[in-house]
Amino acid sequence: MVTRRRSIRIAFWGALLAAGLSAPALGQGSAPISISADRDLAFGSIAPGPAGGSVTIDPAGGRTAAGVVVLGSGFGAASYTVRVNVNGGNPHYTITLPSSVTLQGPGAATMTVDTFVSDPSGTGMAKPPARVDQLAVGATLRVGPNQPSGSYSAPFLVTVNLGN
After folding, report:
1. Residue 114's pLDDT is what?
2. What one-character-per-residue DSSP string does 17-64 give?
3. What pLDDT does residue 162 have?
């Protein structure tokens, strides 16, 4: 019996970004907040096996595999810049990540990404005096048995809201 591994290049592209205001939490009429993408979430090249498995990217950019998955190159956590323009006070913000996203691949092939995590986790603070913070996001890719080769991608939503 001959077994041949096929590689999959995951092109999980950037987040759809949203920024919101929670003015009552700061006691102000309005306070702008913005988020911009610096780097996309990338699971890199992988070669799935007959039993499938998972690939996890942590917010620090490390990558691990579980099950029968061989890892290649080209991976990293997503990175964002959060900017808050408030005068005085503590410019805290909350972070909302998706619960799961379905990646679309060749033909009708799909894979699920879930267990999104961030650093900072849940809340952050755009540190004075620049009122800027870095936000990193990782997640877990669920690889099916003998997953078809090709590029898989989908947008995902990262939301930051100004508030305590």
Report:
1. 97
2. EEEE--HHHHTSS---EEEEEEE--EEEEEEEEEEEEEEEE-TTS-EE
3. 84
